Amino acid sequence: MLRTLGVCRSILCVRRQTGRLRAMAAQSNDVSSSPVASSSDGSVTAGIIIIGDEILKGYTHDTNSFFMCKKLRSLGVKVAKISVVPDEVDAIAAEILSFSRKFTYVLTSGGIGPTHDDVTFEAVAQAFGDKVFPHPVMVDLVTKFFAKTDAESPEMKLARIPESSLLNYGIDKKTGLSFRYPLISVRNVYVFPGIPSLMERAFEGLGHLFHNEQTRFYSREIYVDTDETRIAPILNRAHGLFKRHMSLGSYPDWVSNYFRVKLTLDSESESHLEEAYAFLMENLPQGIVVPFVTDPVSRAATDVYTLAKSGSPLGQKVAAAVQTIEEALDRYPLWKLCIGFNGGKDCTALLHLFHAAVQRRYPERTAKLQALNIRTVSPFPEMEQFIGVTAERYNLHICEVHGNIKQALADLKLQHSELEAVLMGTRRTDPYSCTLTPFHMTDPDWPPYMRVNPLLDWTYRDIWNFLRTLYLPYCILYDKGYTSLGSMNNTQKNPALRYTDAWGRECYRPAYKLENEEDERTSRL
Q1: Where are the beta strands (DSSP E) in 170-288?
Q2: Summary mean pLDDT of the chain
Q3: Residue 6: is its pLDDT beyond 70?
Q4: DSSP string, 61-83
Q5: What distance in Å separates the CA atoms of residue 293 and residue 295, rounded to the nearest whole number?
Q6: Which of 97, 240, 360, 455 is most exposed by smallest CB count within 10 Å?
């Protein structure tokens, strides 16, 4: 199967065809753009076929079907089925034929290339009683790029497509120019590449082929902080009342810090959707609906600076912290700054503040922020996972070092000699921190760094108020009774949060419900 991204991308950029070949392609475009009949109920549907042994064997994670589903839905097309099939002509052909009879559009992904397991074109031909042949446009493309003319060469396999194929040239949204390499279609079947970046680019340029102006999908979400069993009777009633015009989904979430179930409402009628939404909001138990923010990172600058200007007690703490961070940005270019991040609650709050300040000052910036993770021995798996997810969420480059903080800073200096300052989530109540100042050089016998401490005057309660006011994700261990996290060897659940439930089971409240802040570190051994 074609694995080389560079080869495929270069083919997309091959030089403009001759007038004769372009005329053939234009004729193909005109035919392929003709309307396709909708299904019996009037809706426009699609079936997606993902092709590849590597998907079925778990070697490769499929992201193409997810992308296609989102894009098709935005175009008014309902995805009715997704199938994953092996690299076998008979299996692919049977699925294509079945899908083509059931759905308005069939989109395949994968199985295009020069090797033995690239058999999608052969399968499409077989499905419709067709044959593959060296299409002159495709032959010209392959010849120009590979400088090959031998009909039996592996490269020329890319030019052999079904005889009834249509060539669809998309428009590159970045340049406004037509793609040099076409997307092949036969009847209502569209053959997309398997490499995600190429598939996405092709789809973006050819979305008009699937656009259904007669249908628009409307959706709402409701987040609730309770178990499904408690709300099941209300959901059953809503389903019975509105199922003709609205679909209702209920999805438990065991890792969210703010809700336990997400409800989704989908309809082609905005009025029916709003009627069902109003019914649920009126009948769900009081106090369980959470005004959840799904993407607090993209709006960080707006939310943080709005809070800083609010004048509230928390807002004043945020304003002071932001002022320290902005001073650090005045003193040091970003490439000389990094932030200490070990996944704990304090540095999670600091990371969001730092990200907000950078986002506001450099709105067009795309480079990763530098982050220092001093890795502990025997870390919690939940913490490791949270650090990874957070690094992706905030676009961080994590520099991982080991040992105590002094040794870690020495290793950091060796690995990144350009760094001069480290933002730390230190509070005065932390050990050995009562005399620190917002800008505090390390001791003379330590590696020379300016330690920037924006959170010195924050309390345990301030940290939690900040995180939960802005709906920031934090390590799930804090919802399971831990208040201060180290390693698995020196951390336990905080006894101050322990309670017995109605069934006599021992349970722990979340960290943000700790009443006495002085008990924060009693979870450390």
Answers
A1: 183-186, 189-192, 218-224, 247-252, 261-267
A2: 91
A3: no
A4: ---HHHHHHHHHHHTT-EEEEEE
A5: 6
A6: 240
Q: Terminus-to-terminus CA distance in the chain, angstroms?
A: 54
Nearest one of 271, 270, 254 to 262, comparing CA atoms: 254
Which pLDDT value is given to residue 330? 97
CA angle at residue 310 from 304 to 315, to 5 degrees?
Answer: 60
The DSSP bridge partners found for residue 266 are 219, 247
Report the pLDDT value the prediction gives residue 221, as an integer from 0 to 100: 97
Cα 302-305-310 angle, rounded to 5 deg: 120
Question: Any alpha helices (H) in 84-186, and if so which ranges?
Answer: 89-102, 120-127, 136-146
The pLDDT confidence band at residue 3, using thresholds 50, 70 and 90, is very low
pLDDT tier for residue 355 given thresholds of 50, 70 and 90: very high
Q: How far is CA 334 from CA 226, 417, 452, in A?
A: 43, 14, 14
- Nearest-5° angle of CA 99, CA 103, CA 106? 60
Say which residue the tokens 């789809």 belong to: 203
Output the pTM of the full model: 0.78
At position 155, the amino acid (one-letter code) is E
How far is the C-alpha of 156 from the C-alpha of 147, rounded, in Å?
Answer: 10
Backbone phi, psi, residue 441, to 5°:
-70, 150
Nearest to residue 432, comparing CAs of 406, 410, 461, 465?
Answer: 406
Helices in 332-459 by DSSP H: which ranges?
A: 345-361, 381-393, 405-415
SS (H, E, C) 325-348: HHHHHHHCCHHHEEEECCCCHHHH
